[in-house]
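Sequence in, structure out. Go.
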Amino acid sequence: MRSDFSYCPSCGGKVIRNRLTLKNIWEDLKFQVFDLDNTLLKTFKHLFTKPEVVVESYISGARKKYMNPVSFFAIAITLSGVLFFVLRDVYEIDITKSSFSNADSPNMDFVFDYQAILSYLNVPIYAVLTWLLFLDKNKLNYTEHLVTNAYTTGQASFVQVALGLILFSIFDLQFETFNWFFLLGSIIYQFYVFKRIHKTGIGSTILRAFAYFFMMLIVFIGIGILVVLIGFISGNLSLEDFRPK
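Output:
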């Protein structure tokens, strides 16, 4: 049996015969992430210009042209963690400060230690909402909505990181204000993508977006309750924190 293949005859992957070294790891990293022609940048660009092609390519099985949604989302969420670290520890911004709270409110800064976990939990919820709002079994099923939301959430996170690092370094902004504008922009982008996929009219898409926004408010309340429970379980919160000072 032949064993001199340069590429695997089963999966098409390149056969690596050299021992693992820092040099070849770096070469692979440069090709996968930093090369201007790599799938990451192409995926990022085309998720703005022709998102329906990116999503439908992955769903239809043409998966070499664009980065898969799991990897794309994972990189974006990792960079979001870097953003929150910079905002908290470099720019020294209080990212938990809210106009709805006061100085006696419990310190919820620990939430951002679980930011990645919460992000992964949110995508299946987003997928349920968009699946209900764009219910069309001939177009996308729930799993395909998961794929689409992984792409759109990852894309939004990349933009959040870039804007956050730039804007907070220049202007004296409140994170809450930035976050609300970012949420609005994310929903607009998300429904731009679904409009392109489902070819819905502008009016129909806007109505779905409004419904999504109100559904998201309910989800945020649920996430808030989950965060408080995590705080109690992890020891970051106690009943004393909620008593009037």
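Check: Residues 202-234 form the longest helix (33 residues). The two ends are 77 Å apart (CA to CA).
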